[in-house]
Amino acid sequence: MIPQEAQPSTNNDSQLWQQLKNGSELALGKLIKKYFNLLQNYGYKFVRNEDFVKDCVQEVFVEIWSRRQNISQPDSVRAYLLSSVRKRILREKKKKKINGEDEIINIENDLKFAEFSPELVMIEQENTQETIQKVTILLNSLPKRQREVIYLRFYQNLERDEIAQIMGVNAQSVSNLLQAAFKTIRENWSGLIFHYLFLLNFIS
Amino acid sequence: MNKNYQEYSFEDFSRDESFRQWVLNPDDKNDELWKKWVFENPDCAENIKIAKAFLLTLHEKDILLNNDDLALITDKIVEESLLIIPFWRQTAFKFAASILLTLSIGFIGMKYYVQESSNLTSGKITHNLSSNYLEEENINKAKKQITLEDGSLITLYPKSKIRYPKQFSAQIREVYLIGQAFFKVTKNPKRPFWVYTNYISTQVLGTSFMVKAFENEKNIKVEVHSGKVSVYRREDLEKAKLQQKNELVGIILTPNQEVDYSIAEARLLKSIINRPEVLVANSPNHFNFDETPIAEVFGILEKIYGINIIFDEKNMENCYLTASFSDESLYDKLKLICKITHSTYEIVDAQIIIHSKGC
Fold it and tell me: Which residues of chain A make contact with B57, given a CB cutoff of 8 A?
């Protein structure tokens, strides 16, 4: 028995975008349902302030909706949204800094990808919990750009071109960053797996 | 459908939509399917575990919004963007301004009108209205539509009379009114549109307005429905003309505002019209507020009615509103808000002032 494959989403996105451009509130609702949480998640990696991030994501949709007639069809809706959120967060951060409200959100000069701090997953088996901790340490040891590339690749499920567009670099740089990150992960991972297998054998 | 999951790397898994659904949004169905698959394919367990750990590390569970929250956000976005559609983009605003004007000097009656219009002929206002003009009087019970040569529309109410030139001059469009009329004026900034009544004169700056100047009423009233008008006392206007001053003492009215001229007091008083209309085209007729900060509620009312609401933000910062508004009047909405927030309201200079003791 093979788990059911979820519907491919890219074609669907272009259709939703077209409907949104034609003024469909339903399409807007579907895009929000599909992407709002993912976008919040991304924003939260930069600024750990829920309200601030929520407002930024909301503003991105407000702008898209109010400018829908003049907006063009992006190659990738997902990448377009992520990149809009990234830009807005940077802009709003600057604004807040100018207004002297920076104590709330801990301003950096540049967009800084925060360290990952996963919450404990209660339902998971202990060994998954342990793996999560290892992954966290491993990912946090990566340079920030690599960390963001890994995040966009794994969590946001993006292609190289899309990542390049969002981070404002060329596709080759994305490949380089990814390769470097993978190298670090593999090098450090083998020990982990070995350790795990060893432990498993030891127990049994 | 049958994917080659056996050959998947942990990266492949973490990018697989079905797998992601299971890890990030587990439900009974996908949980059963995947657990079974993992059980049947123990050699993939390690990759599955790592992929899972990657996704969970990057996930942020406590900032997730549920579908109801997301639906509310959608509604809010649609509402807000309606409010910020620029006025010039709305077809309803192709006319410059509409006003309702009513003039009243009852005891003198039509005789006074004749006398007053002969005053006009003496060149006080313009010679255009003294010769070569048309006069329409509505003695019926129904309203009468008049189209002027510039395309402007006048709805003349019963017992009302209007005088206008066959051909407007190149510089100015002028009409003279007794009684009540609704104007929809074609926009033409180069030829301002003036409505004269006995005591006050109204210049159209921007589209539709009502002028009420019946002779048997003690007040003259100009109500603006869209666009902008400025209203002057005739005496100020004439004085200014004599002294060739550029500075005029007038009152500018925007939609949902009115000015009353009390003949006894000879002064103009700005206020809010009796039944303020929603000014924003395609505005949703339903507003659902759920624990909404009161400042936000007032903000929305201000935008849809174009009326300033003044309140003490500090004082009311703990006031929240849970209510759903539909087509009740602005005043009914205000009454409800005041009841909930233990406050009262008054109208001063066409603005709403909220007095609250705080919540």
Answer: 116, 118, 132, 135-136, 139
